Every structure is written in C-alpha cells, then in structure tokens.
Amino acid sequence: MYNSLDERSSGISGQLGEIQGIVSSGYGAFRFMSCLLFQFKSPKKARRSLKKVLNQVSFNDELTQKSDRRLNLAFSWKGLCLLNDAVANEGEELFKREFKEGMDTEYRRKLLGDLDDTPSSPREWLWGRNEKLWCQNEKQVVDEKQEVHLAVLVYEGSEEKRETRVKELLETLEMELVDRGRIDSQELKQHKEHFGFRDGISQPWMKGLSVTEGSAADEVAWGEVVLGYQDNTQTVERHPEIAFNGSYLVIRQIEQDVKRFWDSFSTPEGDPVKLAAKQMGRWPDGTPVTLEPDAAKGSVTNDFDYKHDPHGINCPVGSHVRRCNPRTAPGRNSGKKNRHRILRRGRAYGAAAPAEYFPPQLRSEVSQKAEVSQKDHTQDESRGLLFMCLNANFERQFEFMQRNWINGLMGTLAGELDPVASQLNFETFTLPDKPFRKRCPRGDAYVKTVGGGYFFLPSRSAMRKILD
Ligand code: HEM
C-alpha cells in the first residue's frame, strides 16, 4: 500500500514496460478485434494456462516494436479472488468498491440507467448479469453462467489472423467462454460507429505515456487513468500494492438501433443529417458542430471549446459530445482541473447496417460493404458499440458521466437526456435557435445495454503475482 507518490514512480519512463499497451494506444492499426469473456471452472487450470499466454500480453514499451498483433487482459474481482487468495485478501480493503461489487447491483442499475423495467435491464443481458440478485427463490440453484472472470482483448490486422489467434487462445486457455462471451469487432469505414459518425476523436492524454499527444486542454495527470500516480489534484488514491501501474476497465455492450436513429430524423422539413449532427455535436465526418454549424468541413479538430457558443445556438448544450465534455462551460473545468475524463477504447461490433437505413447523402460513405470486411453483413441483425473505457475511479469518472451527463438533466433542459447515448426514453430534444428555440420530438431510445462489467487491468508484475 502506498499513500504518497511512491519513489518508484519518479522514474516514470522505467514504468512503461509495466503498463498494458491499451493505456497508451487505441491500437488503431489493428482493425479486427475480439473481446473474449471467460469463466474459471478450475482456478488451478486457469492459472496454469494463463501463464502460457503471459508473454503475448502487450505492454507500452513494446508498442514501437514491429509486431502485428496486440493482446490485453483484465480480471473481474471474482476472477482475481478465484485465482489468488493472497491478492484477494490484500485487495479486499483497498480495491474500489465499485470494482468489487460489479456493474449489476440494485444501486448501480439505477445509477447507470439499466433500469429493471426497461430493455436495458440486466435481466435481459447477454452476459455480466449478477445471477444471485436475479434468483427469485432462495432455494433455487444459482446458475452463474453469465459471470465473467477474465476479459481477453485480441487485436489483429486481418480477419484471418484474428480467427487463428482466437482459435489458439481458446485451445490454450483452460477455462470456459461465457455464453455469448465472444464479441467480434471490425472497424467500419472511416473510423465510424454504427450511426455513421466518426468516433474516437476526443481523448485525454498523459505526457510520456500516450502515443498521441493532444492539446493542453486534453492533458491529464497519469493518476487519472493509471493507479498509484498523482491525479489532476496531485492526490494519489489509496490502492493495494498489486494495483500499482494497473487501471480500471469498464466494458459495456451497447446495442444500437440504426434504423430507428435515422428514421427519427426523416421529417419533411429539415435536413436529417444536420438534425442528427446537432444531437451528436459533430458532423458525421467529425467536424465539430460548434465551429461549423451549417455544414461538415472535413475537420476532426479537438482544439475548441464552447465559450463562443454559450447558449448552444451552434452546438446544442444537450448534444452528446457537449454533455460528455462540457469543456470550459461556466462552472465546468477543462484540462488538468477536469475530474471527469475517461480514456475511451471502444470498438464497433457486429455487421455494418444496410445502406438504406441511412439518408441518401450518407449512403456511399457507410455502404454496408465495410472497407476491410470479407463477411456478408446483411445477415447479422444486432450491432452496436463495445464501449470500453479506462479510468482510475469509476465513481468520479465513468459513473459520474453516465449518471449526471448522459442520464442527468443539464441546466434548463428539463426532462431531456443524452439524445445519442441514453438508454432511457424521453420526449423532446431542445434545439436552441433564434428567435425561438425548437423542440424536436423523439421516439424511443436508440441504444440499449446488453451486457457489462467492471475489470482491473493489472501491470506486468501484478499479473505474475496473481498467477503465482
Ligand atoms: C452507442 C452509444 C454511443 C455512441 C454512438 C457514441 C458516439 C460518439 C461520437 C460519434 C463521438 C464524437 C467523436 C469523438 O470525439 O470521439 C463521441 C464522443 C464522446 N463520447 Fe460517445 N458514444 C456513445 C456512448 C457513449 C458513452 C456510454 C459514453 C460515456 C459514458 C460516451 C462518452 C463520450 C465522450 C467522453 C466523448 C468525447 C466528448 C468530447 O471530449 O468532446 N459515449 N461519442
């Protein structure tokens, strides 16, 4: 346990080889990814077989080396406890409560918006449900087939290589793949998510750690993402020794209804792409709506704020990107004062939506034949965002954003939630305009949560200790 910035962290560059590679890079060059969710039936066999793949795990110091693959590992609290009693005892007191309790608790369902009587209820989830909580009858045998102990993130440059890799891992790892616990992703055209908007643009970055450095306003202290370092308030949060150089990973499988999304904008008056861009806060090509309110300009800049646009005439205050990062809005802080940044590492999963779901002007850009795909995409109906993010404090970062900005009321926007990312229904979206604001009616939510969990991404030495 350490309470102040440890001597070890003063030689920061020496720590790079300890931190898993996904912290400093989104692995953009690796366009095919699989998330494999495992359960340990025999902890002994799990430990034994995990040792065999340890040398395949990617760490930051190797990112510049020529390698055509990446692999990262993250454990749930239950997984850690099964693998190593000593680690569990050490972590019991000091690992974050959210990590130990998991994503599916009565309290957290309300907090995250996965409400019991909605399509996002964990009762309906494909994986990650806490079966014990859903067992009506105490005498009923709890079938924990959805319980995830380990997430293996595989990144490859081609579909064939990904298939070979997954097959090898499934053969090597002596553990069971959770039912529906393989989620495949292949990058859509032009780095877009399924609704047709460019994703992965705005990210916080850490000096000396992140592969790409952004603007000063996006710089955060290492401790906002990596455990055991000073955060933006120069505080080092208490964690068990084993957590040093680790991070917390949120995984949420969010299904997207692309047809419903675009159908809701096809009104006789108004341009559907413009209306959708106003709700997203960026045009489909990534251009910030606050800088270019009338048309996309092919600019993916992230060096802007909303000072010139206080009332949201250009970019509505309730739009997805403005909610999730209000930048310098009054009462909010940017840069190193911002306490609510998350490092997004999400990927689109499932087949690209048929082109006819999109407005005509977008069809060629999102044509269902995704650039790098070799599959026939019309077959698979379910698609969405495998939302993943890294943070050092679930409550202050991911949960704060989900609860207050995505599913919370912003300023004077009574009754409105995040128009893109909220899984809850609400009736109107306010479009500030002159002389009067407009209220756009909405149908049901475009997204629903179909699985999720909280994980710990250990350092190189922590991984060895866990498998000892
Ligand atoms: C299916 C659901 C979602 C979709 C389609 C979506 C899509 C997008 C897009 C297109 C952008 C703009 C590009 C960029 O800056 O990277 C964006 C930004 C962002 N999203 Fe989402 N998102 C979704 C869910 C979420 C969730 C659940 C969260 C957090 C809990 C989130 C947090 C953010 C953040 C922090 C930004 C950057 C805002 C900024 O700094 O300007 N998103 N999202």
Account of the 3D structure:
The chain is an alpha+beta fold and 468 residues long. It is built from 13 helices and 11 strands. Strand 9 and strand 10 form a beta hairpin. It is globular. The protein binds protoporphyrin IX containing FE. Protoporphyrin IX containing FE binds at residues 193, 195, 197, 199-202, 254, 256, 280, 282, 320-321, 324-325, 342, 385, 387, 398, 401-402, 406, 420-421, 447. Protoporphyrin IX containing FE is lined by residues 193, 195, 197, 199-202, 254, 256, 280, 282, 320-321, 324-325, 342, 385, 387, 398, 401-402, 406, 420-421, 447.
In a nutshell, what does this entry contain?
This protein has helices spanning 43-53, 77-83, 85-94, 97-101, 106-112, 131-134, 159-172, 258-263, 272-280, 320-324, 360-366, 398-406, 460-466; strands spanning 32-39, 69-75, 150-156, 176-186, 247-256, 343-344, 347-349, 384-391, 428-431, 438-441, 447-457.
Put simply, the count of helices is 13
Shape: globular
Report the C-alpha radius of gyration, rounded: 22 Å
Largest sheet: 5 strands, antiparallel
- Count of discrete domains: 2
Tell me the structural class: alpha+beta
**Low-confidence region ranges:** 1-10, 370-379
Distance between the first and last residues' Cα: 19 Å
Element string (H = helix, E = strand): EHEHHHHHEHEEHHHEEHEHEEEH
Taken as a percent bin, the fraction of beta residues is 15-25%
The percentage helix is: 10-25%
- Distinct ligand kinds: protoporphyrin IX containing FE
Number of strands: 11
Mean pLDDT: 90
